[in-house]
Amino acid sequence: MDKKNSPEAERELPPQTAHVSRRDLLYVIGATPALAGISRADAQPAASDQQATAQKAKFERKVFNDQQWRTVGVLCDLIIPADERSGSATQASVPEFIDDWIAFQKQENGSDHEEAQILGGLMWLDRESNARFDKSFADAAPDQQKQILDRVAWPAKAAPEDRVWVLFFNEFRDLTVSGFFSSKMGVADLPYLGNTAVTKWEGCPPKVWTIIEDRMKNGFNDITREARAAKS
Amino acid sequence: MAQANGSAKTYDVIIVGSGAGGGVAAHVLALAGAKICVLEAGAWFDCTRQSSMFGWPYNAPHRAAGSKEKPFGYFDATLEGGWRLDGEPYTMAPGSDWWWWRARMLGGRTNHYGRISLRMGPYDFKPLKRDGKGFDWPITYEDLAPYYDKAEQLIGVFGSQEGLENTPDGKFQPPPAPRGYERIIKIACDKLRIPCIPSRLAILTRPLNGRPACHYCQQCGRSCGVNANFNSPGVHIFPAMKTGNLEVRTNAMAREVTVGADGLATGVSYIDKKTRNDVTVRGKVVVLAASCCETARILLNSKSSQFPNGLANSSGLVGRYLMDTVGSDTGGFLPVLQDLPPFNEDGVGGMHLYMPWWLYQEQMAKKLPFARGYHIEIGGGRDQPSAGILNGSERYLGGGYGVELKQNLRKIYGCEVYFSGRGEMIPNDNSYCEIDPDTVDQWGIPVLRFHFKWSQDEILQAKHMQETFQEIIKTAGGEVIFKSDEKEEWGIAPGGKIIHEVGAARMGDNPKTSVLNPNCQAWDCKNLFITDAAPFTSNADKNPTLTITALGWRTSEYIVDQVKKMNVKV
C-alpha cells in the first residue's frame, strides 16, 4: 500500500499548504496493525495531494493503549460504517482524531473528565461483552456488539440505570460523527461545497428556495419530529 | 545601562497603535504631508501574504478548534494575542470579571474582526438627554456624518437604504443576496414586526481602489488573501507608506508619553521587544490609538512631577466609565432545512441580514424595563465542517448508529441557526480600570486592574434578547436548542468578551468631567490626541469600529487644521 495515501496525510499541515481542489477523495486505511481486522471492502485508492503528502506528520497515540485502540476502531465503524457514498470512520482516520482530541481537551481544560468518561465507557463495553458473550467487545460478533449498543444508543428508550453509559455513548458518537464529517472524506460526503472562490454570489439557489417555500406552505416529512417530540 | 535613543529625528506625529484608530490617523496625516512614526506592539502582518484563506480544518491541528492560544480557532488571523497574552498579565478586583482581548500585530483586531459597520444614530450621541442615563457626547450625529461618509467610501461597506429610526443609512456598496436560512428568519421577523434588513459589513461587493470584490469564501476572520475586506494594513497603513511619510516600527511596546517642561508631549518611550531596549522617539504631536484600555494604561503610567496622577488625568477620569457590549446568544434548529440538495452557502464572512433595534418608541413610552437597545446578529447553516460539527445529533435523530445514522446526519447538516444580541451598556461608576500598584508585565510596565459590573439595564436587556430569539425561532417553525434563563443572568457575556471595550478616556464639553475636548484633544496637553475607542462617551449597540474610523478621521483632520493655524506647532 502506498504510504502517501495513508490517513495520516490528513493531519497537521500548515494552513498555507492546505488548499486542495475539490475531489471526492477516499482514503485507504493505513498500515496500523491495530486496525488490521477492519474491513477494507469499501476502501478506494486516494488521489493524494502531493503538497499535503510531503508534509504529513507521523501520528502517535497519546491516550489509547492497544486494547482500547482496537475497541475504538470497532466502535467508530459501528457508528459510521462505509456505505455507497463514502468510507467508514476508521478509513477517515477518526480514531486518530479522537485520540488527539481527548489529549487536547485534557490539556486545554485541565480536566480528565472526558478522558475518564471515554476510557470508562470502553471498559464497560468489554465488561458487558465478556459477561454476555465471553469475548471482549472488539472480538464479539457484529450482532453481539449491536445488542450491547442498542441498550445505550437511543437515550429516550434506555433504562434509567444505564444513564451513565448513554452519556458515554452520546459523547463517543459525537466524537466519531464530528471526526468523520470534518475529515476530508466527510466534507466530500456531506457534501460541503464551499471554501472556494465564487465568481457570482446569488444567495439561496432558486431551486432550493422553491423547495423551502413549498415545505413552508404544504408541510414535509420531518425525520426529526419524533426525536424532538420525545425529548420535550 | 544606557538608554537607546531611537534617533535624533523628531517626527511630526507619533501614533501608538496600527489598528482601526491608528490606521486612520496614519492614513489621513500621511496624505496631508506629516512625517509620521507608528509604533506597533506586535509583528508585521500583510494579509495578502499571510492569510490562511482556503485552508481546510482537516489539515489543521484538532480540526481547527478554538484553544486558549487561538480562541477563535486555528485559522483566526490574530498572530499573537487573545484574552491571555504570555508575559502580559492584567488583574481584576475581587468580584469583577473582565476579559481583555489584545491583538499584537500590525492592524490589530481589524485583521480578524466581524467587519460589522453600523453608524451610531442621532439618539446615540445624546442618550442622557433622551432617557436620563449615562452621558451625552459633546458632538452630534451631524458632526460625524461627513466622516462616516468618508470612512465608508474608503474602507468599502455594503448595505441598503432603509430610512429606519436612529439607524442612519450610509454610502453603501450593494449588499449580497441573503442565504436560505436568513430568508426564513426574515419571514418570521416580518410576522413579529421586527425589521430584518441587509447587514452592513466592511466587505467589498464591488472592486474599490484596486482591491477586488469578495469571492464569498466566508473566512474573513482568517484575514483576506486578496484584501477584499477592510483591514488597517491593507487599506490604511500600506497606502500611507506609499507617500514616503510613514515609518512603522513593529515590536514597539509603548510605555509612556514623555512630557517637556512646558507640559506638552515630547514623544513616546517604548520597549523594543526584540532587543529589550527602552527607546524614546520624539514627536511634535502624539496620537494614542493603542486600544481603549491600553491607551488608558499608557496615560496612567505617564506620571511626572507636572502630572502626578498620569497624563491628561487632572479630571481623575482616565480609566473610568469603561464599557463593553451586552451579549447573549440563543440557538435554534430549523427542520425545514433538512435534506435539501447540496449547495454552497458560504457567502461573505458574516451575516447577510440583521435586525437593527426596533423598539425606540416603546422605550420612550417606558414600556420596557431597560433603557437601551440591541441589534440581532445571525449565523448558522451549511458552515465549513470543523471540530464539533453535528454534535448533539441525538436531539434530532433520537440517537442510533450505523448506516441509517450516517444517512440521517447528512440530512440534518445545516439546520442549525444562531442568534446573538449585541446591546448598549450604560457607563457606570463600578466599571473602570486603574494601575495595579503590585504588578508589572515582562516589559516592566505596571499593568491594569479591572473593576466591572453590569447594571439591571443590561441584564434585563439580555432577558429581552433571550425571549425575542426564542420567539423568532418558534415563529420560524424551529426548536430552541440552547438558551439562558434567570439563573445565568440571561446568558449575559462577561465584560470584555464581546471585544467592544470603549470609554476610559472620554471626550466632553468640560475639562472637569472629561479627559478630552470635543476634538479628542487632551484638555491638559494640547498636542496629545486619542483616535481609538477610549474617547467614546457611550457605547451604542452599533459596533465600534466604524465610529472609531470616522471619529479618528475627524480628529486627524483637526490635527492638520490646528497645525496649519499654528495652534499646535510642528
What can you tell me about this protein's structure?
- The complex is a heterodimer of chains A (232) and B (570).
- Chain A has 232 residues and is mainly α.
- Chain A has nine helices and no strands.
- Chain A is globular and about 55 Å long.
- In chain B, strands 1, 2, 7, 8, 9, 10, 18 and 19 form an eight-stranded mixed beta sheet that branches.
- Chain B has two domains: 1-53 and 66-140 and 222-325 and 432-452 and 503-570, FAD/NAD(P)-binding domain (3-Layer(bba) Sandwich), CATH 3.50.50; 176-198 and 329-423 and 455-491, no CATH class.
- Chain B is α/β, with parallel strands linked by helices.
- Chains A and B meet through helix 3, helix 6, helix 7, helix 8 and helix 9 of A and helix 6, helix 10 and helix 11 of B.
Span of the ends, CA to CA of chain A = 50 Å
**Strand coverage percent of chain A:** under 5%
Low-confidence segments of chain B, given as residue ranges, are none
The end-to-end distance of chain B, rounded to whole angstroms, is 32 Å
How many beta-strand elements of chain B?
19
The secondary-structure element order of chain A is HHHHHHHHH
Major sheet of chain B: 8 strands, mixed
Round the mean pLDDT of chain A to the nearest integer and report it: 81
Compact summary:
The complex is a heterodimer of chains A (232) and B (570). Chain A has helices at 50-54, 66-79, 94-109, 113-133, 142-152, 163-181, 184-189, 206-218, 225-231. With 232 residues, chain A is an all-alpha fold.
Topology (SSEs and partners):
The complex is a heterodimer of chains A (232) and B (570).
Chain A: H1 50-54, H2 66-79, H3 94-109, H4 113-133, H5 142-152, H6 163-181, H7 184-189, H8 206-218, H9 225-231
Chain B: E1 4-16, H1 20-31, E2 36-39, H2 47-50, E3 81-82, E4 91-92, E5 102-103, H3 122-125, H4 127-131, H5 141-155, H6 180-192, E6 197-198, H7 232-241, E7 246-249, E8 252-259, E9 265-272, E10 277-288, H8 292-301, E11 326-333, E12 353-354, H9 360-364, E13 374-380, H10 394-397, H11 403-412, E14 416-423, E15 432-440, E16 446-451, H12 456-475, E17 479-482, E18 521-522, E19 525-530, H13 544-564
Parallel strand pairs in B: 1-2, 1-10, 2-7, 4-16, 10-19
Antiparallel strand pairs in B: 3-5, 6-12, 8-9, 9-10, 11-14, 11-17, 13-14, 15-16, 18-19
Helix pairs in contact in B: 1-7, 1-13, 5-13, 6-12
